[in-house]
Structures are given as structure tokens and as C-alpha cells.
Amino acid sequence: MPDEHADFEKLIESLNDDVLRASYAAPLDGYRPTFMPRLLAGFLIGCGNLVYGRAPSYLKFRAIEIIARVPYHSWASAIFTLLTLFYADEKRALRLSTLSRFTRFAAENETMHVVVVSALALKHARPGLLRHTIVPVVFAFIYFWKSYFIYLINPRWSLETNYLFEQHAYDQYSLFLAAHQEELKRSPIESEFLAWYGRHPRSEYEFFQSVRNDELVHRNRSIHELRMHEMRAS
Length: 234
Known about the structure:
Layout: H1 2-14, H2 18-29, H3 35-52, H4 58-68, H5 70-85, H6 90-124, H7 129-153, H8 155-179, H9 181-185, H10 192-197, H11 204-233
Helix pairs in contact: 3-8, 4-6, 4-7, 5-6, 5-7, 6-11, 7-8, 8-11
């Protein structure tokens, strides 16, 4: 796991280069999910835009990150359920355990996002209890069980829904960085949780760059894991 984390951090840092990031994103930029994931993700993103506005902000990011970490925990629970039911099927157990490794790593990464972004939101804005705490937690609760049952029914739908939500997060962070580049570069960042995680940005700009890159990797990995899952099933 330490080697995997180091490799991941190297990838995230390399994606600060615009050319390399475009090259990394290109193979899946044109990916078109099936109808049901587009419907589910469209509803989730539409509700978020309705409650928090279309423009990116610290408080919107806080809500996004509370919700974004949910599918990985949900998939881990669904995989645990399936492994309990089909433990005698070694081929299926291997397929599920491979995805489970990804979910654990991504969940830890998203947890870092929500902890640090929440601290920044408290520093820069005044979150309301209902709109910025209760509403995203309720969304996350619903999203957890939706992702859980959809994964049991059709893993493709759940992974493609996540692809679309991570694309939305990537787009939001990209817009935020472009709009607030100079002020973010002037804002230092200190976080014990970031240090514990093993990431050491010097400014909010570098932090949000890394989070943007994380979301792109999660977007691509969702489809990579889907393809590996289906290949092993055939």
C-alpha cells in the first residue's frame, strides 16, 4: 500500500502539467455512459446545482465531497455482501476483491478531501446547518443505498454514475482554479490531516490542483475498473 500511495501521488503531481493531463483525460473524455447512469447522475448533479448554485465555491465543494466519498464505501459494502453470498465462486471473488482494493484507496483519498475542504469552507464562509450540513448528509445517505442496490443489480450503472459525478467534480474544480488562481496562490494552507495523508501543498491553489487531479483519476479509474470487471466476468 505505501508503494501504491507513492505511485498515486506521483501521478497526481504529474497531472499539474496541462499537456500531460489532457493526454491522460483524452481516452475517456468521449465516453458515453448508458441511459440509466445519465439519468441518475443528472438528477444528483441537478439537485446540487439547484441547492448550491452552478458556480463553484467552498461551500459547494464541501457538499460535493461529502457525497463523492459515498459510492466507494457503498461498493465496499455491496462487495462484502456478494462475497458472503458467493464465497465458493473463486473467479467471482477475485473480480470483486480487485474492485474492493480500488474502493478502499479511493475512499481514503475522498475522506482527505472532505476533511480539508470542510476546514477551508469554515475559514472562508459561514455554512448553514440545514443547507450545508444536513442536506448533503441526507443526500449522501440516499446515495449510499442507491449505489449499494444498483451495484447489486448492475455494477455498470453504479460505476458509470460515478464517472459522471467525478467528471462534474473535475469540471467544478477546474473552473474554480481558473477563476481564483491568483488569490488561491496567495493563500497558504496548513492541515494536520493533509500531512498525515502524505500530501504537502504550499497554497490553496496547489491543494485544489491536487484535488482536481484526484477527481480525474477517479473518473478514469471508474471506467477502467468497469472494463476489468466485465473482462474477468467473460
